[in-house]
């Protein structure tokens, strides 16, 4: 049988800490992060754990301790020459200094993070640094410098229309996080028309992600904004009509003008009503279309999976593995070639989907894809059945950053990559 090897302790404790932090169990999360640091078997995970300790300390208003953790994360990132972690460490130090009301120190930290971004051309990290950097510059009255950063986003977002234009630009570039950021900023402006459009785009983006609750919420917000625009228009027209009425008492020849304004008002109200109906119908149609497409993909994936398993079980390789209860290096290569050829590049696509996957985790995924039983996998990988179950649950948490059962991992692998 093949030899068995344990996974990284630092990563395990870090992931458990993230899970506990997400459940607002701060004390337990901090303990797991400290265990990750003590294990010290992977520099990247140790650095991340130290950074998370700083975030928890900030949440507890222990700013001195938080700064010590962020400073330590910075030193570790520099030693590892890890640019993204260096940028985030400087940003976190800037946050901490700002919370301590040390604006000058905070600005120096953000400026250093920005210089690292500029030298390396790491544009993808700008959205993690610039919003708070710009906010700090504005709070210090350094408008010109803030404007320069805004232009490097690359457009400014001080007004509703500008936010809307920026959001649409990023949506067209399929940079959806940036698009959502600008659309949400647009919702904070006073321009009712732009806000209504931003809510509609956010609803469509949520629909694309099958987040129907959020899509419906934004659709309602869009409808409310349209109603607000309609009411605003009605009030403005009412004031205008009142003014014209007073004038008509003196100048009756302006009667025809009043009739024109009244017609325009009615037409505007009708157009707004049509827009509300259109938005609501579009959301409903999008929801139905997304669900039909999802069901079709699932059906195709299940049929492909059944054919894959049936084909593999008719091979000599399958019977050899069952007889020996082990897999040689050559046989693993055969399995990889079989899955890549018969399952739409399963191994290559799973590696691209989750690059941090470990060799033994990948082997377990290959056996699960071919629907070996938990007992068979435990014999092949020299693990207990409980260890294999825990591996599946832990891998699901790593990939999706949320808790899931072993069966959830099985279901994902059986439908991947078709679904």
What are the defining features of this structure?
single chain, disordered N terminus
Overview of the molecule:
The protein is an all-alpha fold and 419 residues long. It has 20 helices and no strands. The protein has helices at 9-22, 26-39, 43-59, 63-80, 83-99, 103-120, 126-139, 143-151, 160-172, 176-187, 192-208, 212-250, 255-313, 316-324, 329-342, 346-353, 359-369, 374-381, 385-400, 406-415. Mean pLDDT is 81; it is low at 1-7.
Count up the helices: 20
Number-wise, the strands total 0
- Which percent bin holds the helix content? over 70%
**Distance between the amino and carboxyl termini:** 34 Å
Low-confidence segments: 1-7
Sheet with most strands: none
Residues in β-strands, percent: under 5%
Regarding quaternary structure, what we see is single chain
Shape: flat
The whole-number mean of residue pLDDT values reads 81
Provide the gyration radius in Å. Answer: 29 Å
Order of helices and strands: HHHHHHHHHHHHHHHHHHHH
What structural class should be given to the helix and strand makeup?
mainly alpha
């Amino acid at each position: 049988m093949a030899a068995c090897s344990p996974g990284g302790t630092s990563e395990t404790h870090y992931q458990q800490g993230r899970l506990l932090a997400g459940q607002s169990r701060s004390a337990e999360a901090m303990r797991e992060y400290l265990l990750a640091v003590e294990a010290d078997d992977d520099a990247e995970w140790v650095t991340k754990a130290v950074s998370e300790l700083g975030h928890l300390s900030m949440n507890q208003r222990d700013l001195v301790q938080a700064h010590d953790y962020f400073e330590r994360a910075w030193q570790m990132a520099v030693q590892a020459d890890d640019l993204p972690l260096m940028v985030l460490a400087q940003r976190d130090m800037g946050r901490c200094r700002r919370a301590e009301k040390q604006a000058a120190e905070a600005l120096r930290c953000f400026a250093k993070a920005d210089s690292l971004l500029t030298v390396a051309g790491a544009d993808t990290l700008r959205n993690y640094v610039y919003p708070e950097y710009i906010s700090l510059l504005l709070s210090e009255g350094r408008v010109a410098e803030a404007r320069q950063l805004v232009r490097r986003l690359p457009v400014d977002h001080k007004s509703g229309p500008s936010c809307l234009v920026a959001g649409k630009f990023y949506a067209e570039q399929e940079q959806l996080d940036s698009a959502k950021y600008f659309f949400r900023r647009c919702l904070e402006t006073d321009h009712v028309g732009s806000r209504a459009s931003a809510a509609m785009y956010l609803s469509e983006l949520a629909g694309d992600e099958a987040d129907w609750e959020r899509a419906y919420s934004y659709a309602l917000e869009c409808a409310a904004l349209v109603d607000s625009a309609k009411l605003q228009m009605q009030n403005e027209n009412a004031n205008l009509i009142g003014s014209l009425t007073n004038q008509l008492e003196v100048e009756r020849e302006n009667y025809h003008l009043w009739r024109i304004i009244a017609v325009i008002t009615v037409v505007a109200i009708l157009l707004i009503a049509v827009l509300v109906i259109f938005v609501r119908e579009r959301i409903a149609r999008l929801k139905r279309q997304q669900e039909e497409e999802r069901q079709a993909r699932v059906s195709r994936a299940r049929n492909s999976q059944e054919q894959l398993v049936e084909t593999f079980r008719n091979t000599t390789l399958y019977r050899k593995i069952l007889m020996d209860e082990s897999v040689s290096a050559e046989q693993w290569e055969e399995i990889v070639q079989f899955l890549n050829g018969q399952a739409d590049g399963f191994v290559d696509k799973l590696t691209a989907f989750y690059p941090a996957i470990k060799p033994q985790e990948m082997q377990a995924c290959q056996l699960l894809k071919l629907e070996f039983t938990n007992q068979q996998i435990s014999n092949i990988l020299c693990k207990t059945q409980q260890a294999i179950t825990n591996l599946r649950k832990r891998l699901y948490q790593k990939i999706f950053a949320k808790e899931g059962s072993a069966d959830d991992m099985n279901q994902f692998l059986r439908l991947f990559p078709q679904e």
